[in-house]
Design a protein that fits this description.
The protein has about 90 residues and is α+β, with helices and mostly antiparallel strands. The chain has a single domain, classed as Ribosomal protein L31 (Ribosomal Protein L31e, Chain: W), CATH 3.10.440.10. Helix content is about 30%, strand content about 30%. It has a 4-stranded mixed sheet with strand order 1-3-4-2. The longest helix is centred in the middle third of the chain and has 17 residues, at about 25-40. The chain is elongated and about 40 Å long.
Length: about 90
């Protein structure tokens, strides 16, 4: 990938996922992460890391976590990668 432009640690609230139908809550949580990163970092494209996706789906599709801490890196080409922080 290109050079790093901006790196942030964000706490993403996933309470919008609780308003979704029971079988679509994990899908709505992924969408909420994309919307939050889009609002705060303004990237052209957003890529969600596999480890982050597995963390959302770990408790099943009906019970995603209420909030999640993510690391978002925006590159010079306008794309952003969202993953779990290393700590």
């Amino acid at each position: 990938m290109a050079e790093q432009e901006e790196e942030r640690i964000l706490v993403v609230p996933l309470r919008a996922a609780k308003t979704a139908p029971r079988t679509k809550r994990a899908d709505r949580a992924v969408k909420a992460i994309r919307e939050h990163v889009q609002r705060h970092m303004k990237p052209d494209r957003i890529f969600i890391d596999d480890v982050l996706n597995e963390a959302i789906w770990a408790r099943g599709r009906e019970n995603p976590p209420p909030r999640i801490r993510v690391k978002a890196i925006k590159f010079e080409d306008g794309s952003a990668v969202v993953s779990l922080p290393e700590d």
